[in-house]
Write a sequence for this structure.
C-alpha cells in the first residue's frame, strides 16, 4: 500500500483517480486541485509517491510539472508520476532532466493509460519503487525518427528499448515479446554497444532512454552548407 | 525602441562648439514601422503644418542663446553639406541621362535611364538620415515593403509608387537649388569670418597693407576693430539666415520624402489595424477552443476509459464476451482521445506556450516523415503572436516539403538578430514552388504581414527550396 498525494484540477478526473487508487489498495493522503496546494500537501502528508497533472491552476500552463520538479529539488528521492495530455517529448525531457540529481522514481504517462487499470497501477508501483517510466507513445515518437546512433538499431532492438524505457525488467520484456530472457539480454547488450554506453557507467538502461530524450531537446546542428 | 534624438531637441541651449551635434549616423537607427498600429495618431491631425525644430528654436530662444547654441553650427553644416551632395547628384543625373540617351540605341541605355528615374531612391534614404542633423525625429520611409523576391517585383512596386517620383523631384531640386544656397551661405560665412579676424590679419600681414574698403588701407590692428563688430553682426545674420533656409529645406524634405497621409493611406492604416485586431481575435478564439477541448471533451473521455477500466476490473473473469466488448469500448475511447489530441495540437500546441518555438518545432520535426534538422537558437522567449505565426509558418513549410518537394532532408534554422527573428526552412527537393499558387503560403505571408514580417520563397526548378521568414519582435 502506498500513501499517495494526488493533484488534478478537473474534479471529475480527480474523483476517478481517487477511486482508481483506492481500488488498487492505495491510500490517497490528499487530493488537491492546484500546484501550491500540492506542495503544501507533500510537506504535511509525507507521501510515498506524488501523482500530478501537468496543466494546473493558477496559470493553466505547466504548473503541475514545475511543482513536481521543485518538490524533487527539496526531496531528492520523492517518486513522482506525471500524468499528461501531451505527447510532446519536451515535457518528458523537462521532467527527466530537471528531476534532481537522481534519475530514479520518475514517471511520465499519458492520461489515456488510466483506462488500463492494471497497467497503470503497475507503473505506479514501479515508479514508487524507484524505476523510471516513460509513456510508450512518447518513446515511440522519439524512436520513430532518430539520428545516427539509433538509426543503427534493428526494429527488434527498437522494441526492446521502448519496453525498457517503460521500466520493464529483462524478464518482463521477454514475456511481452514472447522470447527468451537470454535473447532480451543479447538485444540489450547490442543496444548498449550501438549507443556507446560504457558498462561502468551506472544504470545503462536509464541512460539508453535518456540519451534520446535529451537529444530531442537539442537536435544536432545541420551540416555546414557548401 | 526609438532612440533619443541628438542634443538640441528640447534643450538646444548649451553653447557647445567643437563636439557639435551627432552625425546622421546617430545612436538611433530604429525605423518607424510602416502603416502598422501604435503611434499612428501623431500624424492624424492632417492639415497642421509640420513643426520645424530649428524654427521653434529661433522663435523661442533669445538671440544670445540661439546664437551660442549648437543650432547655427548644425544649420551651416547641413546647408554646406548640400553643396557637394547637390553637385554630385547633378553630375550623376547628367551622366545617367546623357549616357542613357546615347546608349539607348544599344539597349543598355534603357537601364541607365531607369537608373536615372530611380536615382531619388538612394538619395531619399540618405537625405532622410541626413535630416537627423537638424531634426529630432527621423522621417519614416514612405515606401511599401516589397513582398516578392527578385528585381522585377522590386521595380514594379517602386515604379508604381508616388513616393518614388516625389523623391526624383527632390533629387532635381537638391541638384539645382542647394549648391547655390549652400555656396551663398558659405560665402557669407567666409566674409563674416574674415571681418571678425581682421585685426589679427592686419597684425599678421603688417599694417598699412590690408585694405578692407578698397583704397583705404587699415593703419594698425586696432583700427580694424569696427570691422570685427560688422563681422560679428554678419555672423549673426548668417546664423539666422541659415536657420531660415534650413527650415525651408526641412519643410521641403517633409513634403517630398515623408509618407503622405492621403485619404487612401489613412484608409489602409485603418484596415491594417482592423486586420491585426481580427487576427488577434482569431488567435484568442483558437486558444479558447483548445482550452474547452482540454477541459471538456478530453477529460470526459479519460473519465470514460477509466470507468470502462473499472467495469473490466469488476467483471473479472466472469464473462469473456462482455470483457471483450469493454476492451473494445476502451480502445475506441482511446482512439478518440488520440484524434482529439492531434486536433488540439493543430489548433494550438501547448508545448509552444510552455516551452517556446524551438521545442515546438522540434516536436513537429520528430513527427515529420522527412528527416528534419532543427537548429533554432534564441536567447529568450518571443512575443506570443510572433511565436504562433512563426510556428505555423514552419509547420506549413514542412508539410509542403513533405507533400510536394520530394525532399530527402529539411533544415530549419532560426536566429534572433537586431530584434528580428529570421527563420530559414531549406529542403533539397525538386523546387519550383510558387507562392502565388499555394494558398497555404499566401495565407502565411498574410499572417506575417500583420506583424510587419515577410516571407520570401526562393525555389528554382530543380531545387533547393528556401523559405525565409523575417519578423521584427519588439517585445
Amino acid at each position: 500500500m502506498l500513501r499517495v498525494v494526488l493533484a488534478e484540477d478537473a474534479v471529475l478526473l480527480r474523483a476517478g483517480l481517487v477511486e482508481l487508487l483506492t481500488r488498487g489498495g492505495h491510500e490517497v493522503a490528499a487530493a488537491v486541485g492546484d500546484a501550491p496546494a500540492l506542495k503544501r500537501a507533500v510537506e504535511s502528508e509525507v507521501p510515498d509517491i506524488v501523482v500530478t497533472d501537468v496543466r494546473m491552476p493558477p496559470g493553466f500552463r505547466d504548473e503541475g510539472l514545475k511543482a513536481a520538479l521543485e518538490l524533487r529539488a527539496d526531496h531528492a528521492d520523492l517518486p513522482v508520476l506525471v500524468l499528461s495530455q501531451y505527447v510532446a517529448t519536451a515535457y518528458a525531457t523537462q521532467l527527466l532532466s530537471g528531476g534532481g540529481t537522481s534519475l530514479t522514481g520518475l514517471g511520465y504517462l499519458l492520461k489515456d493509460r488510466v483506462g488500463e487499470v492494471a497497467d497503470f497501477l503497475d507503473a505506479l508501483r514501479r515508479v514508487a519503487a524507484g524505476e523510471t517510466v516513460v509513456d510508450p507513445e512518447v518513446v515511440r515518437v522519439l524512436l520513430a525518427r532518430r539520428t545516427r546512433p539509433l538509426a543503427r538499431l534493428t526494429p527488434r532492438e527498437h522494441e526492446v528499448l521502448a519496453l525498457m524505457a517503460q521500466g520493464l525488467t529483462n524478464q518482463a520484456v521477454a514475456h511481452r515479446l514472447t522470447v527468451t530472457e537470454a535473447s532480451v539480454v543479447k538485444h540489450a547488450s547490442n543496444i548498449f554497444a550501438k549507443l556507446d554506453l560504457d558498462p561502468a557507467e551506472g544504470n545503462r538502461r536509464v541512460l539508453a532512454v535518456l540519451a534520446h530524450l535529451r537529444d530531442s531537446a537539442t537536435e544536432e546542428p545541420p551540416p555546414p552548407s557548401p | 525602441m526609438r532612440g533619443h534624438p541628438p542634443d538640441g531637441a528640447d534643450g538646444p541651449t548649451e553653447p557647445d562648439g567643437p563636439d557639435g551635434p551627432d552625425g546622421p549616423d546617430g545612436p538611433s537607427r530604429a525605423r518607424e514601422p510602416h502603416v502598422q498600429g501604435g503611434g499612428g495618431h501623431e500624424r492624424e491631425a492632417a492639415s497642421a503644418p509640420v513643426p520645424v525644430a530649428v524654427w521653434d528654436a529661433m522663435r523661442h530662444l533669445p538671440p544670445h542663446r540661439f546664437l551660442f547654441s549648437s543650432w547655427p553650427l548644425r544649420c551651416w553644416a547641413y546647408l554646406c553639406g548640400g553643396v557637394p551632395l547637390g553637385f554630385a547628384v547633378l553630375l550623376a543625373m547628367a551622366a545617367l541621362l546623357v549616357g542613357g540617351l546615347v546608349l539607348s540605341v544599344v539597349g543598355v541605355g534603357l537601364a541607365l535611364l531607369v537608373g536615372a528615374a530611380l536615382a531619388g531612391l538612394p538619395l531619399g534614404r540618405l537625405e532622410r538620415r541626413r535630416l537627423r542633423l537638424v531634426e529630432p525625429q527621423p522621417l519614416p520611409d514612405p515606401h511599401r515593403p516589397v513582398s516578392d523576391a527578385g528585381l522585377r517585383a522590386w521595380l514594379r512596386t517602386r515604379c508604381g509608387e508616388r513616393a518614388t517620383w516625389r523623391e526624383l523631384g527632390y533629387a532635381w531640386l537638391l541638384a539645382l537649388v542647394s549648391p547655390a544656397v549652400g555656396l551663398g551661405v558659405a560665402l557669407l560665412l567666409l566674409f563674416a569670418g574674415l571681418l571678425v579676424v581682421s585685426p589679427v590679419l592686419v597684425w599678421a600681414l603688417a599694417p598699412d597693407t590690408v585694405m578692407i574698403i578698397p583704397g583705404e588701407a587699415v593703419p594698425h590692428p586696432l583700427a580694424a576693430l569696427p570691422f570685427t563688430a560688422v563681422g560679428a553682426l554678419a555672423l549673426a545674420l548668417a546664423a539666422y539666415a541659415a536657420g531660415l533656409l534650413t527650415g525651408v529645406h526641412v519643410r521641403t524634405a517633409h513634403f517630398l520624402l515623408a509618407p503622405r497621409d492621403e485619404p487612401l493611406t489613412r484608409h489602409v492604416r485603418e484596415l491594417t489595424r482592423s486586420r491585426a485586431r481580427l487576427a488577434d481575435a482569431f488567435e484568442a478564439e483558437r486558444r479558447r477552443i483548445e482550452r474547452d477541448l482540454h477541459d471538456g471533451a478530453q477529460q470526459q473521455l479519460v473519465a470514460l476509459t477509466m470507468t470502462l477500466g473499472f467495469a473490466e476490473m469488476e467483471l473479472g473473469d466472469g464473462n469473456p464476451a462482455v470483457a471483450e466488448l469493454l476492451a473494445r469500448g476502451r480502445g475506441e475511447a482511446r482512439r478518440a482521445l488520440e484524434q482529439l489530441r492531434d486536433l488540439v495540437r493543430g489548433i494550438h500546441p501547448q508545448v509552444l506556450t510552455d516551452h517556446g518555438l524551438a521545442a515546438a518545432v522540434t516536436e513537429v520535426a520528430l513527427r515529420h516523415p522527412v528527416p528534419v534538422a532543427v537548429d533554432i537558437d534564441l536567447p529568450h522567449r518571443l512575443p506570443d503572436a510572433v511565436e504562433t505565426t512563426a510556428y505555423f509558418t514552419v509547420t506549413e513549410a514542412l508539410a509542403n516539403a513533405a507533400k510536394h518537394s520530394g525532399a530527402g532532408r529539411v533544415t530549419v534554422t532560426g536566429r534572433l538578430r537586431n530584434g528580428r527573428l529570421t527563420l530559414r526552412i531549406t529542403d533539397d527537393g525538386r523546387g519550383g514552388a510558387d507562392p502565388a499558387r499555394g494558398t497555404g503560403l499566401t495565407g502565411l505571408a498574410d499572417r506575417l504581414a500583420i506583424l510587419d514580417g515577410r516571407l520570401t520563397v526562393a525555389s528554382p526548378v530543380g531545387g533547393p527550396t528556401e523559405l525565409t521568414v523575417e519578423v521584427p519582435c519588439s517585445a
